[in-house]
Structures are given as structure tokens and as C-alpha cells.
Specification:
The complex is a heterodimer. Chain A contains 19 helices and 25 strands. By secondary structure, chain A is of the alpha/beta class. Chain A has three domains: 234 residues, Aminohydrolase, N-terminal nucleophile (Ntn) domain (Glutamine Phosphoribosylpyrophosphate, subunit 1, domain 1), CATH 3.60.20; 166 residues, 3-Layer(aba) Sandwich (Rossmann fold); 158 residues, Glucose-6-phosphate isomerase like protein, domain 1 (Rossmann fold, 3-Layer(aba) Sandwich), CATH 3.40.50. In chain A, strands 3-2-4-1-10-9-11-15 form an eight-stranded antiparallel beta sheet, with helices on one face. Chain A has a seven-stranded antiparallel beta sheet with strand order 5-6-7-8-12-13-14. By secondary structure, chain B is mainly beta. In chain B, strand 2 and strand 3 form a beta hairpin. The chains are: A alpha/beta, B mainly beta.
Chain lengths: 579, 383
């Protein structure tokens, strides 16, 4: 789970690569490196953020080059383990995203044949294998090497004395960008947006031979045509502008992305699929898992359809009996665990639907149909606008099954979201920022909302936070409540209001400070809690959205108060493409 | 040459419209006011633009990010005054520069003249000078500025547009730029007064209607939405993508309509109307001389004249805005101005509501069949 980028054309390659890597930093950011074809292969690699080390790369010459930003899987983050990796002679350089499963065996064999390894990475074996087959024809050497590799890869290879990049992918994402007399390659399209809107999504097993202004794609040794797709994202969407963080920018984009997703609607084939289902299973990881749970809480009572939610990473260990529609929810469309689960569902002849933000991503190819959410590029590692856009997509499915009963609520929801963005949360932030633990509790659909609130809090502010169903707090976690442990409770009118209010009183009795989210004008609730944060009194579906947005703001401002690196929390990457 | 646009202030006299955005972001003819300022600068080849943001800054930043021009953004943490805002931008300034308010319209020709001068200000004639800084001029040189006086000595006012050299920063002693000007004059500096050709400010909410009709004169006609063949159009009409105009609707320009709106059938839109995005105008409704912001719904059989509707108002059928004049107090000043209605964000009105010379705050709810007059505070329920 790293990001790779390649450039071949008429410009100086280094600035293009550095810029591209910065756009890919969300995929990993513990070290980076680039290699160019200059007088020889010139390489610069470094541990740490790109912005801290880019000056050192400025001297690399040449208009052909490859780059890599790393999230360590094999070997700790270090200058040596950073990509690109070279063969023994230093004439061939490789960047790689993915995992080579049989690398230990290959490495033993290669060492037996006299190759010297400099790093602990799985990638270096690729460089040495290509070296063994290289006799002046780089494409042939790569073609001879790939069958030896087991696992997942997207690789870019360059060699001395040849203005050429060979690109190949299998089970890891790789996109080509077609410019005028120049070709780009990258893990996703965000680095390409500045230069071209014409992209090609490579298929698994594709090998592409790139030269300035020319490209040929091979599959199973035969030249193939892949369609050029036009991308309507614009590069402004990937810029932070004057915002302090991408995350804040993305929080503020939510009314728009929610509206766009609702407005895009559901196409007819997907509609038929949803209407025919007599059972729905959702597979997801992380934040997407929480949106899937919210869907369950909404769809089961409102549309009377059984819904199961499975965690992608656990799916293969118990492999539930599958029936009915299987929906994979993934922002990036590259989440390895979710894709593996989806493949399993397909093998059992279940109709499959992907809900993703990435046109052309792997999950869209595996699933029968795709429901695209319109969040636009999300750069902040913590999911915000993709979360609400996912909810938009899933709520539309609920609405469809209920014959449009929520048309009005959904078409006005963006106004309510815009409204809570103005909410002042600084009192709650002050409380959370000095706490060691924070509990998030809710009932019904607000239980997964609380889990998401807790996830946001811990991933960006590093404050330990747990999301609980309010009723479960009594079964254990109550022991942890102290006057220094704030509880964030979502308590809105409805069948859960009464019990929720008495839960809050129980917590107050343990002297825990309570921050409550309730509807505006609920003075009774405001009186019993320490801090009351109002959300607009609207439809249940909309309350789910507005409560979530308030919790995002709470996490964001707490992280800022604690001076965390909000966009790049430690140890995390946005899209988890390894299992 | 550089330019600093001040867009940090709320524009409190424009409340309730400035709840979620600063004055510079209020849309007239469907574009935020600040965009007209940026356009005028770009037309003069000034591309090095710094925008000072503060109040509801996220709105401004998001919008500026989407423009083509590379705009530098600086944040004024607390809105203390114009000079303080200028100090916030100091680190970005390396050259002679212009200062412009982000919430006034100015034509490109006036900028062309002031950018030739070092240390100058644009001045204009205004019929209510006591809302502005009144300028006393002798032989084209500024002698004195009197901020918002009770009795104005002349009708000449400062537009808030200045041309400065770098040493102005040493004169910024207080939080207001006019004080710095006074200090410069006192120390013998010559500040030239240059008359502006076309400068428009909106001080009070109803002024937006005037600004709106002025800006509508410049719209580019174009139809992107779905317009029924029976629709009658005259004059400059602009319709955004995804908008549907139903049969037998009549539109007399200048009119601009945003994207994803639903209008008609049998609706009449008369000149000087701006309609934002996602607006619904139901059948048999008549609109004239009005500024309708995004996400507004107006029920059928309504008559909307001289009205400003904030974002997300939902007005049921048979709503009337009735232009008349009564005494209204805004910001310690009592005035008499004729307009129909100014509604804040998210105002809801039940059927048969009549607004008469009314300013309704954000989130006001009005029960069935009421006639509302005068100022109504935010969140009020009229039953």
C-alpha cells in the first residue's frame, strides 16, 4: 500500500514526479524516492515526508522517471528500504506497490546465483529478476519476470540508455494518463489531473510499454486496445487552498458532495437489482463498515428487509452462507479485504454491487454493477465527505425500497448539513482535548454514528475513544467512568429518547461530564448535561448525517487543539491495499 | 503590482443574510460580490492577489479555490478593522499594491486609473454620505476623511479602494485604514483623490436589489438547461445546467437562473431577477425585481416583488411580498426604504402569507394567513 508514479515525455521528470508523489501521499508517507534516466540511472531516496526532502531530489536530470511513496510492509522505513530499487549493476530501477508473496524463496534463489541484496524489501527481487533476463529489451525482460511473481503488484521499470518505462499490474491499481507527447502512470488518477483528463485504467495482467507520446498495452503477449476515459474531476478539488487541512476542506464540502450523490440517482440496472433482492449483505472495512451498519439500522425497520453487515477482513475466516444481494462499500475501491470478500460472493453466484468513489477502481471491475458516490477526490486520511457520500448512496437504496418516502428529506439534507457546519463546538473540544479517554454512545442508528465519532477521534487526535451502544455501557465500561472521562451522547427525539435520557442521568450520577447532541430547543436535555450541542430538528435520516458531521468537527478541532498532524495521522494510510 | 482584497468582515448591517457567509460572498446576479472585484483586477492584468479572510472563512476559501486565478489567502483571526486586516497580509506584500474591499463592486476602468498612481484613493459621490467615510478634497488631493459623520460636509465618499506603497505599513497605528490616511496626510504625504466611474456598495439588505439589477446588465445570455418549446423569452436570459423550465413560462430578461432549478409551468419571471441553484418556483407564480438565493422553494400562485430570499427558504402557496415603505431601524439608524421582503436563511411560511416591508431573520416560521411587517428576530415563530 504505497503510491507509485511515472513520467515520460518532454518535461523535466523530477518536478512532475515530486508533485505527483505529494498527491499520492495519502497512500503512505514514511519514505519516498525517485529515479530518472539521465546519463545513467539517477536515484534519490529518503525517509520521511516528501515536503521535507524534496530539495535533495532537485538535481536529478532526465525526462523519464519513476517515483514512489511508501507505507512499509516488508522492512522498516529507512533510506535503504525506500524505493526505487535497483539490480546489482544499478542499470535497472523498479518501483512497486503490492506484496510479492514468494519473495523469500525468490531471494534465496537469486542470492544462490550471486546477486547481492541491499534492502529487506520484497520489491528488490523484481529488479534482480529483470536483470537476469535483460539483454537490451526491457519489455521482454519484464515479460519474462512477471510469471515468476506470486502476489499483487503494480510496477514501473526503467533501464539505463533507453527512454522507456515498462508498467505492469496485477491486483494492485495502476492508471495511465495520456497527454500530448507525454505519458503518465500512477496508482490513481489524482496526480494526473493537473496534466491531462484522458486516462486509461489498466486491467489485471496488463503490461504497458510507454515511450514519449506513444504507448502500447499488452495482455497475454498480445497488443490490446483499452478505452480512454475522460475524468471530470478538476485539479482544484485536490488542492488545499487556504484551508489549514484537507480534512477541514473536505468537511466543508459535504453539503455539496451529499447533494451531488443524491442528484446522480441510481441507474435502472442497479434499481432492478436492489428491488429484486430479498436479503442484503454488506461487506466493508473501517469507516465504510460504520456506514454499512447505519444502513442496517435504517433499512431493516424502514423497508423490512433482512440486512447483514460483514467486516471485510473477517469475512474469509467464517465465510457466511450468502444469499441475495451483496454490496461492497469502499471509498477507494481498492480495499484488499473487501475485494476478496466480494470475489467470494461472486463465486457463489450472488448479484454484487460496489459502492465506491473511484471510477474504474478494482472493485468496480469485480462487481456486477457500480453505484458511484460523488465525493470527488478525498485527500485527508480520515474519511469525512466520502462517509456522508456513502450514506447518501445507501440512503438512496433505503428510499428506493420505501418507494420514495424520503425524497423530501434527502433532497433537503444538504441544507441541514450546511447548517451544522456553523456549529460552535469549542467547549466540547476543550473537554475532550484534556481527556485521556472519551466514550461515544448512542442508540439505534446513532450507535454506529457514535462508533464513527470515536474512530475519527482516535485516528486523528490520538485520544483514546470508544463507541458504545448506550445500553451496553452498563455491562462493563461503566467501571471506567470518572469525572475526567467525558461521554459524548447522541440523544434525539424518537423511541430511544426516554432510555437515552435515563442513561445520561446514570452517567451523570457517576460524575462523568456529558456532552450531548440533541435537537435544537430541547431544553430538558440541555439542563441535565454539561455541554449541549444542538442539531436541527429534522427527519431521522438527516439527524444521522448532522450528528455525524458534528462529531467530525469535534474530532477535527480536538486534534488541532492537541496539535496533531490531522491529514497524516501516524501509522495510517488512506487506502489499505494489503490484507 | 499586487492587490489585497479585504473579505474578512461580516457586514453586520446586512444581517440576517450574513449568517453563514460574509458580505463579500453574498450572491448578486448569481456570483459572489468578491468575484466581480477579482474580475476587475484580472482585467487590469493584476494576477498577484491576496485575499484576507476571517468571518466564515471556510465559505470564502472554498469558493476562491475553485477560481482559475492563483489567489493567496491570509486569515485575520479577529475582525478588528481594515488596517488590522491589512497587517495580516503584510508578509505577502513585496511591491506597490492596491487595497480593495471584497464586498463592493468596482469597474475595471477605475482600477486602471488608480493603479497608475502611488498613494491614492478612489472616491465617489453618494446620496447618503453619512454611511461612509466622507472625503474633503482640494485640488485633487485628499485633505481630510471624516468617518460616518452625522452631518456630512460633502457628498464625496471614500470607496475604500486605495493604492499604496510599501511604507504604508508604518502608518498603520490603529485598526482602521482611514486613520492611517490621516496620519499620512499629517506627515505631509500627498494622497491623490481619483473619482471612480462605477462603484456600488450594498450597505443594507435592500441595497442588494439595486446592486443585483446593476450586475444583471452584465450577464452573458446562455441556455444550458431544459427549456420547453412554449417558453417565451425576451432580453438577456441565462439558465444553468440541469434546470427545467416548464411550458408556457414567460421570462423577460435580464434574468439569471442557476443550475438544477425547477420552474413552471405557467410561471412569469420579469426583469431584474436572479435565481440561485436548486430553486423551485411552482406554477402560476410571478417574480419581479428580486434576488432569490439557492435552495429556495416558492409555492404556486405567489407574487414576489422587490424581495431578497436567503438560502433554503421554503414558502408555501399564495405567498405575497408587497413593496411599501415604513420606518425601519437597522444598526441604530432609522430609515424609510421601500421594498417587499428580506428573508434570512431557512425561513418557512405557511400558505397565504403576506410580507410587507419586512425583514425576517434566519429560521423564522410563519403560520397560515399572516401579514408580517417590519423586523422579525432570528428563530421567531409567528402564529
Amino acid at each position: 500500500m504505497c503510491g507509485i508514479v511515472g513520467y515520460i515525455g518532454r518535461r523535466e521528470a523530477t518536478p512532475v514526479l515530486i508533485q505527483g508523489l505529494k498527491r499520492l501521499e495519502y497512500r503512505g508517507y514514511d519514505s519516498f524516492g525517485i529515479a530518472t534516466v539521465g546519463s545513467a540511472i539517477e536515484i534519490y531516496k529518503k525517509t520521511g515526508r516528501i515536503s521535507d526532502g524534496e530539495a535533495g531530489a532537485a538535481g536529478l536530470a532526465g525526462s523519464t522517471g519513476i517515483g514512489h511513496t511508501r507505507w512499509a510492509t516488508h522492512g522498516e522505513p529507512s533510506d535503504l528500504n525506500a524505493h526505487p530499487h535497483t539490480d546489482c549493476s544499478g542499470r535497472i530501477a523498479v518501483v512497486h506497490n503490492g506484496v510479492i508473496e514468494n519473495y523469500a524463496e525468490l531471494k534465496r534463489q537469486l542470492e544462490g546465483r550471486g546477486h547481492t541484496f541491499r534492502s529487506e524489501t520484497d520489491t528488490e527481487v523484481i529488479a534482480h529478476l529483470i536483470e537476469e533476463h535483460y539483454g537490451g529489451d526491457l519489455l521482454a525482460a519484464v515479460n519474462a519476470t512477471l510469471p515468476l511473481l506470486r502476489g499483487s503488484y503494480a510496477v514501473l521499470v526503467i533501464a539505463e540508455d533507453t527512454q522507456q518505462i515498462v508498467a505492469a499490474r496485477d491486483a494492485s491499481p495502476l492508471v495511465l494518463g495520456i497527454g500530448d507527447a507525454e505519458v503518465f502512470a500512477a496508482s490513481d488518477m489524482t496526480p494526473l489531473l493537473e496534466y491531462t483528463e484522458r486516462v486509461i485504467f489498466l486491467e489485471d495482467g496488463d503490461v504497458a510499454d510507454l515511450a514519449p507520446g506513444r504507448y502500447t498495452i499488452y495482455h497475454d503477449g498480445l497488443a490490446v486496445e483499452r478505452p480512454i476515459e475522460l475524468i471530470n474531476w478538476c485539479v482544484e478539488d485536490t488542492r488545499k487552498g487556504g484551508f489549514a487541512h484537507y480534512m477541514l476542506k473536505e468537511i466543508y464540502e459535504q453539503p455539496q458532495s451529499f447533494y451531488e450523490t443524491i442528484r446522480a440517482g441510481i441507474d435502472e440496472r442497479v434499481q432492478r437489482m436492489v428491488m429484486e433482492a430479498d436479503e442484503i449483505t454488506l461487506v466493508a472495512c473501517g469507516t465504510s463498515y460504520h456506514t454499512a451498519l447505519i444502513f442496517k439500522y435504517l433499512a431493516e425497520p424502514l423497508c423490512g428487509i433482512p440486512v447483514r453487515v460483514e467486516m471485510g477482513s473477517e469475512f474469509k475466516y467464517f465465510t457466511p452462507p450468502l444469499r441475495g444481494l451483496v454490496i461492497a462499500v469502499s471509498q477507494s475501491g481498492e480495499t484488499a479485504d473487501t475485494i476478496a470478500a466480494l470475489k467470494m460472493a461472486k463465486a457463489r453466484n450472488c448479484p454484487t454491487l460496489a459502492i465506491t468513489n473511484m471510477q474504474g477502481s478494482t472493485v468496480t471491475r469485480v462487481a456486477d454493477e457500480t453505484l458511484l458516490m460523488r465525493a470527488g477526490p478525498e485527500i485527508g486520511v480520515a474519511a469525512t465527505k466520502s462517509y456522508t457520500a456513502q450514506l447518501a448512496a445507501l440512503m438512496q437504496i433505503v428510499n428506493l425500497r420505501c418507494e420514495g418516502a424520503f425524497d423530501d428529506a434527502l433532497s433537503h439534507a444538504h441544507l441541514a448539513i450546511g447548517d451544522v457546519l456553523l456549529q460552535d463546538v469549542h467547549e466540547a473540544v476543550a473537554l475532550c482535548a484534556k481527556a485521556e479517554h472519551v466514550f461515544f454512545v448512542g442508540r439505534g442508528p446513532f450507535y454506529p454514528v457514535s462508533m464513527e465519532g470515536a474512530l475519527k477521534m482516535k485516528e486523528i487526535s490520538y485520544v483514546h475513544a470508544e463507541g458504545y451502544a448506550a445500553g451496553e455501557l452498563k455491562h462493563g465500561p461503566f467501571a471506567l467512568l470518572t469525572p475526567e472521562t467525558p461521554v459524548v451522547a447522541v440523544c434525539t427525539p424518537g423511541p430511544t429518547y426516554g432510555v437515552m435520557a435515563s442513561n445520561i442521568k446514570e452517567m451523570k450520577a457517576r460524575k462523568a461530564p456529558v456532552i450531548a447532541l440533541g435537537v435544537a430547543g430541547d431544553t430538558e436535555l440541555a439542563e441535565i448535561v454539561d455541554i449541549f450541542i444542538p442539531i436541527p430538528n429534522t427527519h431521522l435520516l438527516v439527524q444521522v448525517l448532522t450528528a455525524s458531521v458534528v462529531l467530525q468537527l469535534l474530532a477535527y478541532h480536538t486534534a488541532c487543539a492537541l496539535q496533531r498532524d490531522v491529514d497524516k495521522p501516524r501509522n495510517l494510510a488512506k487506502s489499505v491495499t494489503v490484507e | 503590482m499586487q492587490a489585497v482584497i479585504l473579505a474578512a468582515g461580516e457586514g453586520s448591517r446586512l444581517r440576517p443574510l450574513t449568517r453563514s457567509k460574509p458580505k463579500a460572498m453574498l450572491p448578486v446576479a448569481n456570483r459572489p460580490i468578491i468575484e466581480y472585484v477579482i474580475d476587475a483586477l484580472l482585467e487590469n492584468g493584476i494576477r498577484d492577489i491576496v485575499v484576507v479572510v476571517g468571518y466564515r472563512k471556510e465559505e470564502v476559501i472554498r469558493h476562491l479555490n475553485r477560481l482559475d486565478a492563483p489567489i493567496q489567502i491570509v486569515v485575520q483571526e479577529r475582525q478588528l478593522g481594515t488596517a488590522d486586516a491589512l497587517r495580516a497580509a503584510e508578509s505577502e506584500i513585496t511591491d506597490d499594491f492596491l487595497v480593495l474591499p471584497g464586498d463592493n463592486y468596482i469597474d475595471a476602468g477605475s482600477i486602471a486609473r488608480i493603479k497608475e498612481e502611488r498613494n491614492a484613493m478612489l472616491v465617489a459621490e453618494h446620496q447618503n454620505p453619512s454611511n461612509f467615510g466622507v472625503v474633503v478634497i482640494k485640488n485633487g488631493i485628499v485633505r481630510e476623511i471624516v468617518e460616518k459623520p452625522e452631518d456630512a460636509p460633502t457628498f464625496t465618499v471614500s470607496t475604500g479602494i486605495y493604492s499604496f506603497t510599501l511604507d504604508v505599513f508604518s502608518y498603520l497605528q490603529t485598526n482602521e485604514i482611514p486613520d492611517a490616511i490621516a496620519a499620512m496626510i499629517a506627515s505631509g504625504r500627498r494622497i491623490r483623490a481619483i473619482p471612480a466611474d462605477d462603484w456600488q456598495d450594498a450597505v443594507y439588505p435592500w441595497d442588494l436589489l439595486k446592486l443585483n439589477s446593476r450586475m444583471l446588465r452584465g450577464i452573458k445570455p446562455g441556455i444550458a438547461g431544459e427549456v420547453d418549446a412554449s417558453v417565451i423569452r425576451r432580453g438577456a436570459v441565462r439558465i444553468g445546467t440541469g434546470t427545467t423550465i416548464g411550458p408556457n413560462t414567460v421570462i423577460y430578461g435580464p434574468v439569471t437562473i442557476g443550475s438544477n432549478c425547477n420552474i413552471g409551468p405557467n410561471t412569469v419571471i420579469m426583469p431584474d431577477v436572479s435565481i440561485g441553484d436548486r430553486v423551485v418556483l411552482e406554477p402560476f407564480t410571478y417574480v419581479a425585481d428580486s434576488l432569490i438565493m439557492s435552495d429556495v422553494t416558492v409555492g404556486s400562485h405567489s407574487r414576489i416583488v422587490s424581495a431578497v430570499f436567503g438560502q433554503g427558504c421554503i414558502l408555501a402557496d399564495h405567498t405575497t411580498t408587497y413593496p411599501s415603505a415604513s420606518l425601519i431601524e437597522v444598526g441604530d439608524r432609522i430609515q424609510r426604504e421601500e421594498f417587499g421582503a428580506v428573508l434570512g436563511e431557512g425561513v418557512r411560511a405557511a400558505p397565504f402569507t403576506t410580507f410587507k416591508n419586512c425583514i425576517a431573520g434566519n429560521g423564522v416560521t410563519i403560520g397560515k394567513g399572516k401579514t408580517v411587517i417590519g423586523i422579525i428576530e432570528d428563530g421567531t415563530r409567528v402564529m
